[in-house]
Design a protein that fits this description.
There is one protein chain. A hairpin with a 5-residue loop joins strand 7 and strand 8. The chain has one helix at 2-15, and strands at 22-34, 38-45, 53-59, 64-74, 79-90, 93-100, 113-134, 140-161, 164-171, 175-188, 191-201, 203-214, 234-242, 245-255. Residues 16-20 and 219-229 have low confidence and may be disordered. Helix content is 5%, strand content 66%. The longest helix has 14 residues, at 2-15. With 256 residues, it is mainly beta.
Length: 256
Amino acid sequence: MKTKIGLAAILFLFGSGILHAQSSFFVSGGYGFSLASDMVQTNYTERQNSPTILKNIHGSYGAGFSGTIGYTKMLTDNFGIELGTSYKRGSSIESQSSFPITTIEFPDGTGEIATFTKKIHVNYLGIMPAAVIKSSMNGFAPYAKFGFIFAFPKGYDAETLWHESADIEYTGPMAFGYTGTVGAEFVFWNTTLFAELRAVSLSWKVTDEKLTSTDKYAPISLDSGTTPNLEGMNTNVNWRLPLSSVDINIGVKVQF
C-alpha cells in the first residue's frame, strides 16, 4: 500500500510539470551516520568457570558513503519537484563470538577457545522523488525537501571460524521509505554549491541468504540458528535490517 501511494505521488508531481519552469542537474557526495538504534548483532563470550557475557550491538546498516545525481524543476520561485538517484555503500558492522571447544583447562581457568566472526554490510541503489521548498536571498538559498525513497539493497556477510571462512549474500524485495532534507545553496563565481543534511527512514526485508563461497565449515543462519546444507545453499529467511541514516552531503548544481 505504501509503495502504491509513493508511485501515485511521483505521477502527480512529475506529471504536473510546468514546461517553462527553471531546471537544474546536481551531483553530490557525502557520508551517512546511523539513525536507527535497533539491535543488529550480538557479541558472545563464553568461558569455563565464568558467566557467559552477551553484549548487544545497536545501529543501522545505512551508515556509509553515498553519491547522488538528480534533476530539479522549480515550478515557481519557491516550490519545485526533484528526482534523485543515490548509491549507498554501507559500512560493515562486525560481531564476534568466542567459546571453549575442549574441557582442557589452562592455568587461568579457560579452555581452548574458538572465535566466530561475522561482518555484515549492505549496499543499495535508491530512487528519491521529492517536493522542494526554497527561499532565495542574495546568493544564499535555504531549502527543504520532503519525499520518498525506493531502494534496491543487497547484503553481504563475511564469516570466519579459526582460519576458515564463508561469504553469504542477502537478497530481498525493494525497500520503501521516507526522506527529509534541509540545506542551503551558495553562488560562487557563477557556480551553485550546496550543503545539506538528509534523513532517511528505511528498513529492508531479507528473504533469501545464499552461500557464495566457503572453505570447510557451514555458516549459521541468522534467523533460525540452524546449519544449512552447503550444496548449492539458498536458504529462505524472513527478517529485517535497519537502513536508516542521517547523511551529510555537499555538491554542485548546474542550471539551464
